[in-house]
Amino acid sequence: MASRPEEVTLIGVCDGQLDSKRYQSSYLTNKVGGPPDWLPGISLQSTRCGRCGAPLAHVVQVYCPLEASPYHRNLHLFACPGVECSGRSDSWRVLRSQCLEAESAGTASRPDPAQEAPLAATDWCDTADDWGMEDEEDWGGGMKKEIHKEAAAAPEAQAACETDVSSQLQDLSLGERQEDVPVLRSFFISVVEESDLFGEEDDLRHAQRLLREYERREGVAVGELDGGEGKGGEEKYEKTKARHGDAVFSRFMKKISLCPQQIMRYCRGGKPLFISEPPSNMAQVVSACGCCGGSRTFELQLMPALVSLLQRGDSGVEAELEFGTVLVYTCTNSCWTTGSKSAMEEICFVQTDPDQQLFK
């Protein structure tokens, strides 16, 4: 049996505002806010809050095809901007949509490079993966994607699934005014591999280890190598104490400390980064896929730094969206039937953060 490829966590960061007058986004674009760009053939979806019934704002769009799959694949996250609904899992929705590459040919072409703004979402670091970038050999781009088997759902099972989703989603009607749907300011999302952020820290840790070995061998004490000296030449020690004894929160803060401006973490099949202790019934919270009945797996999570970017496009006023982290779990098989017109609903799990103001 071949060993499983090492899991790679991708870090999403804001890469500048997406000006719709200068750049026409498509389903290939990874972005915050703006209207959702649906895949060709996917019916327009109107999502409403499970708590108050209000129209949901489009928060994030991610182009995330899977390796060895013939499908384009998108995730769209929506949330209720109402104050009373902030931080509640039932006020968030995530929809997964797919279509064959052949179905999209000639329907939604890649935007003209001349239209792209500087530092657009398709401009990656040299060692980073092309999150959503296509090339001639690999239509799915260079994202680290898990090899999987496409679930061959029977037509009747798919029809039942679409009926179930349709009962949860209200179709966009001609009578619904567009201004009733809140639209957030749009920003590009760019990406780097998390491992690229650890180079300097690994060097420092190695130096610290050598220093401790030298102290034990020679019986002398030397100052800490922390990148700077303490006041008056004294040794400088920095110790992190868990807030209120919250070890989970402490680990969360330590993990994101090298890139506190990260707005998203992506690692399909990896381990989520909880901001607080998860519920004991997490296995029940992440229920089986409503379509194929298979298991769900962690795919991505939104981070606290995203909150300050969520502003209403018409006024620039910050939306009433507060959260610590939003974890997204999707069908492990990414089940889909060719020709389907309805997006699949997946699971959002929201954890709140009492120290949210630290990220603004």
UniProtKB/TrEMBL annotation:
Q: Name one Pfam family in it.
A: PDCD2_C
Residues annotated as signal peptide:
none
Q: Which GO terms describe its cellular component?
A: cytoplasm
List the InterPro entries hit by this protein, alphabetically.
PDCD2-like_regulator (IPR052815), PDCD2_C (IPR007320)
One GO biological process this protein is involved in is: apoptotic process
- Residues covered by the Programmed cell death protein 2 C-terminal domain: 246-351
Where are the membrane-spanning stretches?
none
Q: Looking at the record's lineage, which domain of life comes first?
A: Eukaryota
UniProt-recorded name of the protein = Programmed cell death 2-like
